[in-house]
Amino acid sequence: MPDQTGLRVALAQIDTCVGDLAGNADAVLTWARKAAEAGADVVAFPEMTVTGYPIEDLALRASFRRGAERALADLARALDDAGLGDLTVVVGTVGERTSREHADAPARPTNQAVVLRGGTVHQRYDKHHLPNYGVFDEFRIFTPGGEPTTVDVAGRRLGLLICEDIWQDGPVAELSDDDLDLLLVINGSPFEEGKGHIRTDLAARRAAEVAAPLAYVNMVGGQDDLVFDGGSFVIGPDGTLLASAPQFVEHLLVWDLPPRGTAPERGTTAQPLDPDEEIYRALVTGLAGYVRKNGFRSVVLGMSGGIDSALVAAIAADAIGGDKVVGVSMPSRWSSDHSKDDAADLAKRVGADYRVQAIKPMVDAFEGEMALDGVAAENLQARVRGVILMALSNAEGHLVLATGNKTELAVGYSTIYGDAVGGYAPLKDVDKSRVWALARWRNNHALDAGDLPPIPENSITKPPSAELRPGQTDQDSLPPYDLLDQVLDAYVEHAEGRAELLARGFDPEIVDKVLSLVDRAEWKRRQYPLGPKVTALAFGRDRRLPITTRWREPVDTAASAEATARATGTTTDTVEQH
């Protein structure tokens, strides 16, 4: 006879803040109450819920670990006092353990899952596999656990793991003989494009290994340069998606584990997002989290009339409201009338506080004291604009948004201490081709909803230009963006060398110029503001190259050597833009 005991499971994908121990604990209490009201027997929260994630070197401070442990104990009592003592609550936090080999050594931090029940800590599990790639450096910070953990809830057996433990072989295999009813995994898995199906495919394989459904709860929200998309789900051992939560919003996913011997039924499933919408929502989530968690109330950016500042303004308006966006037009003697008109139109569409501050008098005053021409004169204009934005930030408390994109950052097409100033860069991990795609998606989304598109059509269709000299366009200095982004994708994202690029059929002169520009711009990228990671390889934590290096991709032919000399032999190339 089948066991007639079912189990209602709740997955609470919530937005936590690193270091806000009291605030995070309050959020757990709030969402645990919601789970209880929904009839849940167990509710699971994301990885390191109490502390926020990632905590980086805060884990190494004993004072922080003590504070987290106090917050955990207070949370257990608060749950019981609220009448939730019978609810099994699984949360993540930072723990401690001593070395088996050196028991007298100081305790080391662990990435821990904790089971709370009846006002006390019922069980603890320390994460076994500590990722040490991409954005992760947990192996340096934490000490690994090793013992598998199962939790009994209402007569059902749950296996408990943390994030990377299912990405590596070992921990799941240790639970495969435990006759599990459910494998519960708490996660802090950052968003990147295309990662959703990778998670579900992996989870399906692990569910098959334990012959039981797998419940995967993930955090949501922005934390510095990382974005967490939620997207929690339950998947069956046959690979069937049984339930799923929407991305980029806090959500409580409730699913019923059926009695043993009974086939699991599908619960609610969220509609997958279009790829462009997914990226756009990630950018909005990242900016909103950074603004809110760092105490800003508003943002300021330069509105040039171009596509990059237009998209950033739309993202900012969606993230925090157009009334909290300050857009500043800073025309120079070379600024076109259509650019000024497009900037004013943009501000009206998104509801921004629009201001005009001409830079000509400031530039004239500087040039009256110091003779400049060429790139130096062009960069002066950009730096005056940076001074204006930072002055408004200091005077009025706005967060300055840099509007450059990943393509420009890759080749150094920005002015250091000029258009590169800012506290946050929403498009840092978005190449120019994708900027246009996202702008078109956002406008089409508005039209579908019967709203006014936020981005002026002219900003999308006109040739991009920095307007730092008469008649300037980006393509005076760079290959066409669609071609440039293909070369950059191969060289930066996939780490292909010159020979591989030539084998793809790219023109040697273009390859040599692009590679030279990318290699010379590393020092600029180190000083650029942080921005949300949305691709598999973002500048910053994902790609760590030395600034001082004499390595250059080998050039095989005399013709290619000549091309390289042409690409690197002039200091007046506007792409350099120091």
TL;DR of this structure?
Residues 557-578 have a biased composition (Low complexity). By secondary structure, the protein is α/β, with parallel strands linked by helices.
Walk me through the structure.
Catalyzes the ATP-dependent amidation of deamido-NAD to form NAD. Uses L-glutamine as a nitrogen source. This protein is an alpha/beta fold. Helices cover about 40% and strands about 15% of the residues. The protein has a six-stranded mixed beta sheet with strand order 5-4-3-2-1-14. A hairpin with a 2-residue loop joins strand 6 and strand 7. Helix 15 crosses helix 17 and helix 17 packs across helix 19. It is elongated, with a radius of gyration of 26 Å.
Secondary structure topology:
Blueprint: E1 7-13, H1 21-37, E2 42-44, H2 62-81, E3 88-97, E4 108-117, E5 120-126, H3 138-141, E6 149-153, E7 156-162, H4 164-167, H5 171-175, E8 182-187, H6 195-210, E9 214-218, E10 220-223, E11 226-229, E12 233-235, E13 241-244, E14 251-257, H7 275-293, E15 299-302, H8 307-320, E16 325-329, H9 337-350, E17 353-356, H10 360-369, H11 374-396, E18 399-400, H12 406-411, H13 432-448, H14 457-461, H15 481-493, H16 498-503, H17 508-520, H18 522-526, H19 558-568
Parallel strand pairs: 1-2, 2-3, 7-8, 8-9, 15-16, 15-18, 16-17
Antiparallel strand pairs: 1-14, 3-4, 4-5, 6-7, 9-12, 10-11, 12-13
Helix pairs in contact: 1-2, 7-8, 7-13, 8-9, 8-13, 10-11, 15-17, 17-19
* Quaternary: single chain
Uncertain runs are 558-577
Q: Count the E strands.
A: 18
Q: Helix count?
A: 19
Could you tell me the radius of gyration in angstroms? 26 Å
Sketch the major β-sheet. 6 strands, mixed
**Percent of sequence in beta strands:** 15-25%
Order of strands, widest sheet: 5-4-3-2-1-14
* Alpha-carbon distance between the two ends: 76 Å
Q: What is the averaged pLDDT score?
A: 90
Shape: elongated
Helix fraction bin? 25-40%
Query: Helices and strands: which structural class?
Result: alpha/beta
